[in-house]
Amino acid sequence: KIASEIGVTRSTVWKWIEELRALGAQIKGHPSSGYQLQKLPDLLVPSLVRRELGDAEIGRKVIHYFRIGSTNDVALALAAADKGRSAHGTVVVAEEQTAGRGRFARTWYSEKSSGIYSSVILRPPLSPASAPALTLMAGVAAHATVSSATGLPVDIRWPNDLLLNGKKVCGILTEMNAELDRLHSVVLGIGINVNHREMPPELRAIATSLRIETGKVYSRAQVLVSLLKELERHYRLLLESGAAPIIERWAARSTYAKGKRIRVLA
């Protein structure tokens, strides 16, 4: 019936069904009754994400890849090619990264369709000396996202890691294009381990996921939407009120900051 209604062969329908299954859709097939869609794939579909963000700056454009080297590399190239401000607020997401990275060129484990692998392009009206506040801002936003999703206490480790039960669940990599007195663009790379069933043996002692800690399976699209909304809220706070309230919120959420003197040069 499907084949006749859309004017293709049954073989073509079967190939399409297999492609959908490869993307994660659960489709039941029966010789007499045909196919039944049982579950949609948990993909970071740009149109669904955009619909939840309204007129927000961050997420005004969402670019999705199934498999890519690094979302930060793509975002950096987009920012470099943009001569105006059209790339500002663009978010690059991927289902899988083959060369995801963290600070000091460390590898970021990017299991297919299990985490949030994202990069946000910003063109903030800030000086290069003020750029570190953007990393703290991203940390506070990610903290709010993970806390809301899990209901568990989340700790921020200086300057860019989020921990659940002492294990890393989120990492932030900030890269920028700047001159001595001018900040051209900033890329905030944010990775969150969401639905990983388990981590590789070499990472189990130091890394975890939302699913491992709570036993729940999450909608990655909803986690991404929550993250982008929190980034929007805290980015506006930074621009309107300066770094002080961001630093205060960051310090209140980090045991690594308690009892330590912090000096911000800006």
- From N to C, what is the helix and strand string? HHEEHEHEEHEEEEHHH
The chain-level structural class is alpha+beta
Number of helices: 8
Number of domains: 2
| Radius of gyration, whole Å | 20 Å
- Main β-sheet, in a few words? 7 strands, mixed
Roughly how many Å apart are the termini?
67 Å
Strand order of the largest sheet: 3-4-5-9-8-7-6
**DSSP helix fraction:** 25-40%
CATH H-tier superfamily of the largest domain: Bira Bifunctional Protein, Domain 2
User: Within the CATH hierarchy, at the fold level, what is the topology of the largest domain?
Assistant: BirA Bifunctional Protein, domain 2
- The level 1 CATH classification of the largest domain is Alpha Beta
Task: Describe the protein in words.
- The chain starts with a helix and ends in a 14-residue tail after the last helix.
- 34% of the residues lie in helices and 23% in strands.
- It has two domains: 2-39, no CATH class; 46-252, 2-Layer Sandwich (BirA Bifunctional Protein, domain 2).
- The strands form two sheets. A seven-stranded mixed β-sheet has the order 3-4-5-9-8-7-6, sandwiched between helices. A two-stranded antiparallel ribbon has the order 1-2.
- The model has no long low-confidence stretch (mean pLDDT 89).
- With 266 residues, it is of the alpha+beta class.
- The chain has helices at residues 2-6, 10-22, 46-51, 71-81, 132-150, 210-214, 220-241, 243-252, and strands spanning 26-30, 34-39, 61-65, 90-94, 115-122, 154-157, 161-164, 167-179, 182-193.
